[in-house]
Amino acid sequence: MSSRPLLFLLCGVVFGAGLALSGMTDPAKVVGFLDFFGHWDPRLTATMGGAVAVAALGQWLVRRRGRALLCAEPLGTPSSRIDARLLAGSVIFGAGWGLAGLCPAPALAVSVQHPVALLFVAGFVAGLLGVARLGGRG
Amino acid sequence: MIVALSVADWSLALAGGALIGLAAAGLMLTFGRVAGVSGLVRNALSGRIEAIAFVLGLPLGALLIRGLTGGGAGVAFASPGRLALAGLLVGIGAGLANGCTSGHSVCGIARLSPRSLVATMLFIAAGAGMVALVGVPAP
């Protein structure tokens, strides 16, 4: 059981390395990716494609096996409901993403090199906790 | 107009994506957990050690890449007010949609969840709308 936090740390390190290597931690590249009507920078399509392809392989392996390697519980089934809450939340999320060219993981990843990103993280935490307090989850 | 990219640009973007996918696959294979950063941040704030470990790993990984490649110095950010407002919107949105770019756009799409596909299309559409509206952030 003691290996559990260590494996989470390792996954966080690999995740953060991927964000930095791909350019997701550079707001200009993210804004460029969203700038369809100006100078579109398509490189993050490769990032998303690569991430989804490798994650899908992991997903396929664990589904075929029926349960995870280090966890006895059966796999959960995430919600599949498409409702107004999901639609509104996704639009609000996208608006914030385009406004600063940051989403949660890249903001956390660059926050040590560029502490100004902590302003984004603070707003993010306030919004996340605010929704949890007011409306609970899904 | 599309920005011209070199083979190196594409390779880095793809390799970085593969690492993100590897981390997501790692959490799924070992513990059956979705690498959704919003959910992990929420758990970290309520004191879950494993989630705190993951969140701390993110800047460590970014520092590692900076140490290896020397890049990341000339990165510009939006103004402080704009950063805080953007973070607030992203937090409210991720709270309502129960996930962000990692949970929906990587893990969700990887298991072909229609819910995550819809969320991702709206993330990108609203993000593109915002960029068209307010333009590229001035540092």
Residue fraction in strands of chain A? under 5%
Structural class, from secondary structure content of chain A? mainly alpha
What is the residue-mean pLDDT of chain B, rounded to a whole number? 93
Biggest interface: chains and residue counts? A-B, 116 and 109 residues
Individual helix count of chain A: 6
Count of spatially separate domains of chain A: 1
Low-confidence stretches of chain A: none
Helix content of chain A: 55-70%
Structural class by sheet pairing and helices of chain B? mainly alpha
* Average residue pLDDT of chain A: 93
Per-chain topology:
The complex is a heterodimer of chains A (138) and B (139).
Chain A: H1 3-22, H2 27-34, H3 43-65, H4 84-100, H5 104-110, H6 117-135
Chain B: H1 7-31, H2 37-45, H3 49-69, H4 80-97, H5 101-110, H6 114-134
Helix pairs in contact in B: 2-3, 5-6
Descriptive overview:
The complex is a heterodimer of chains A (138) and B (139). Chain A is mainly alpha-helical and 138 residues long. Chain A has one domain (3-135). Helices cover 68% and strands 0% of the residues of chain A. Chain A has helices spanning 3-22, 27-34, 43-65, 84-100, 104-110, 117-135. In chain A, helix 1 crosses helix 5 (104-110), helix 2 packs across helix 4 (84-100) and helix 5 (104-110) packs antiparallel against helix 6. The model of chain A has no long low-confidence stretch (mean pLDDT 93). Chain B is mostly helical and 139 residues long. Chain B has one domain (7-134). Chain B has helices spanning 7-31, 37-45, 49-69, 80-97, 101-110, 114-134. The longest helix of chain B is centred in the N-terminal third of the chain and has 25 residues, at 7-31. Chains A and B meet through helix 1, helix 2, helix 3, helix 4 and helix 5 of A and helix 1, helix 2, helix 3, helix 4 and helix 5 of B.
